[in-house]
Amino acid sequence: MCTLKAAVVPVTPFRQNCTILFDDASGVGTVVDPGGDVPMILAALSRHGVKVEQILLTHGHVDHAAGAALLQEQLNASGTEGAPIIPVVGPDRRDAFLLEGLEQQALQFGIEGARNLVPDRWLAEGEQVTIAGHPFDVLHCPGHTPGHLAFAAPGLGFAILGDVLFHGSVGRTDFPYGDTDALIRSIRTKILPLGDDIAFICGHGPGSTIGAERLGNPFLQG
Ligand SMILES: [Zn+2]
């Protein structure tokens, strides 16, 4: 029986969906995209009794990644002595330039507590990450950023898509490094093939299903 639960904490002025995925029975869980508001994330973890196994990043934008270093430090400081350190995992190495500029990005947008970051482990297409005991496939989905990743567990009918595909929209590509063609190609070749029944949580706004977006998302018609 699947006991994977999701708790969403909107963080930063961008209301980014920091998502805690955890196993209700064991309490083991992963924090995805802690962009900021670390005290709110810590409060949610304690409310749900989650023991964090890792911090996972979809991409290097400030609203997704700027709180990761502080959250990691606070979780490791509150852990028992000798406990394994809680790693920051992902995104793809091609987002390193964004993670190196998090403090600068944060100043621009008034996000507090931001720290530049080098993840403990980069991820790449074809790898898997284990979230609360469930394997998730790592999908490289460039376009919004060069190193953007999505995480999909077809067995659970569930995926985390970051800023690739939203309910009724897609990720912005109006950055110097953005690439609209690459983004649409990522969605068509990596996300849609996951299947219509896959439900997803994305970086902003409500989640949806692949099928609903394939049929109704204006960016995917024609
Ligand atoms: Zn983004």
Structural account:
The chain has 222 residues and is α+β, with helices and mostly antiparallel strands. It has one domain (4-220): Ribonuclease Z/Hydroxyacylglutathione hydrolase-like (Metallo-beta-lactamase, Chain A), CATH 3.60.15.10. The chain has helices spanning 38-47, 62-65, 68-78, 96-99, 102-109, 180-191, 210-216; strands at 4-11, 16-23, 28-32, 51-56, 88-89, 128-131, 134-140, 149-153, 158-160, 165-166, 169-170, 199-201, 208-209. The strands form three sheets. The chain has a six-stranded mixed β-sheet with strand order 6-7-8-9-12-13. Strands 1-2-3-4-5 form a five-stranded mixed β-sheet, with helices on one face. The protein starts with a strand and ends in a 6-residue tail after the last helix. Bound molecules: zinc ion (ZN). Zinc ion is lined by residues 59, 61, 64, 144, 163.
Distance between the termini: 39 Å
Our estimate of the beta-strand percent is: 25-35%
Largest β-sheet summary: 6 strands, mixed
Multimeric status of the protein: single chain
Whole-number mean pLDDT: 95
List how many beta strands DSSP finds. 13
Radius of gyration: 16 Å
So, CATH architecture? Answer: 4-Layer Sandwich
Class inferred from helices and paired strands: alpha+beta
- Helical stretch count? 7
CATH topology: Metallo-beta-lactamase, Chain A
Are any ligands bound, and if so which? zinc ion
Order of strands in the sheet with the most strands? 6-7-8-9-12-13
CATH superfamily: Ribonuclease Z/Hydroxyacylglutathione hydrolase-like
Q: Residue share in helices? A: 25-40%
Net shape: globular
